[in-house]
């Protein structure tokens, strides 16, 4: 990469100007085309201080309708609130909507290399971050994103010259930071770290383009040429299926739903006694969670009318309301649907020491979206691995991840639907869609079985709650939550 970089031959000034005008014209036409194709484009600028990244972004966006792009500056350190979320959080929530550009003045490279140089990342943590970045960039491109990554390269001598020029003028002196001066002073050290990062994250689906930034107009031409070529290639690839990756995660054996015995029950007396005991214990554990800054993610899926709401209520009844959030997940809003399907869940992750409870989850991808045709077959088949990767990211962050499938039989659901239909104060709970879904019970059962088999990992296992007797299911859920938190301690 940088250590063996050979500077390309620079054309004449007139040739550069002529070619820049041609590429600018081409990019301006692509603005409407990516909107029509619903292609989201991420353009990431990294490089040496004073290498001209900001100027390049300013020149490139002049060629795009301002309705179709945004610019994000990501070079500032994470805020205290962001530090209480996974490393990827503040970057993932910044991804663009389908059909729009987003330009980034630095991205996760800046944070990783800075932490590496300043000694905040050891070898093991560095490797973890590299894996997270490579997995996420692959997920984005698999889900239709174009990720263009540019590194602006200048020599030590050229950087020093530019920094001195900025410092000499009182109106531009503010643009030179202590970090820029340190970078130039220890150029070779930084070069080594940058070079390793670029090599470690250079992948065919999201390659690095090294930009010779010794001349600003020449740098603009290189960016425009690569960007236009990337858009052209991405639009040709849109109709192609993405390979399904083999599972590499340790899985726990799960029974088929038909094998789950649903005759388990508790008496009212047993239920009341255990509920009081377990809620008191969970209340104490919640205080310890906050003190130890351990985040908890509890995910609920299950049949309609299986009792998810009542189950959640018994867990939250033991918690300090300042330390948890329940997220009822419905159909995605337009701005959510226009992004990677995991985006809206990244946005809802808890802070360290807090609990997030999801009433319906990202697993809608392989159930309702699969069966109702809201995504392609290739999309939902890829999703098993993508969701395992997402949960691995949470587990590596230190989160306790607990997933419940709330199980009842077909007849119990019918009885509960009928009761809701015939009870005025419960009628709001039943919809025409609920009745329609009953006709697809067998299809949903097959989809759930496949989901359980392919996504019950050792770090984020599924637990089946037998909920014909709701009291039994509530007590079992509380016991599992308490046991999982204790293991985390």
List the topology elements:
Layout lengths: L12 H25 L3 E7 L5 H9 L7 E5 L15 H4 L8 E5 L2 H10 L5 H20 L3 E8 L2 H13 L9 H8 L1 H14 L7 E5 L3 H22 L30 H25 L3 E7 L5 H9 L7 E5 L5 H4 L5 H4 L8 E5 L8 H4 L5 H21 L2 E8 L2 H13 L9 H7 L2 H15 L6 E5 L3 H19 L1
Parallel strand pairs: 1-3, 1-4, 2-3, 4-5, 6-8, 6-9, 7-8, 9-10
Helix pairs in contact: 1-9, 2-9, 4-8, 10-19, 11-19
Helix content: 40-55%
Number of strands: 10
- SSE string, helix = H, strand = E? HEHEHEHHEHHHEHHEHEHHEHHEHHHEH
CATH architecture of the largest domain: 3-Layer(aba) Sandwich
Portion in strands:
5-15%
Output the radius of gyration: 26 Å
Oligomeric composition of the shown chains:
single chain
CATH level 1 class label of the largest domain: Alpha Beta
Contiguous helical run count: 19
* Largest sheet composition: 5 strands, parallel
Kindly report the spatial arrangement of strands forming the biggest sheet.
2-3-1-4-5
CATH topology of the largest domain: Rossmann fold
Average of pLDDT: 96
CATH superfamily name of the largest domain? P-loop containing nucleotide triphosphate hydrolases
State the secondary-structure class. alpha/beta
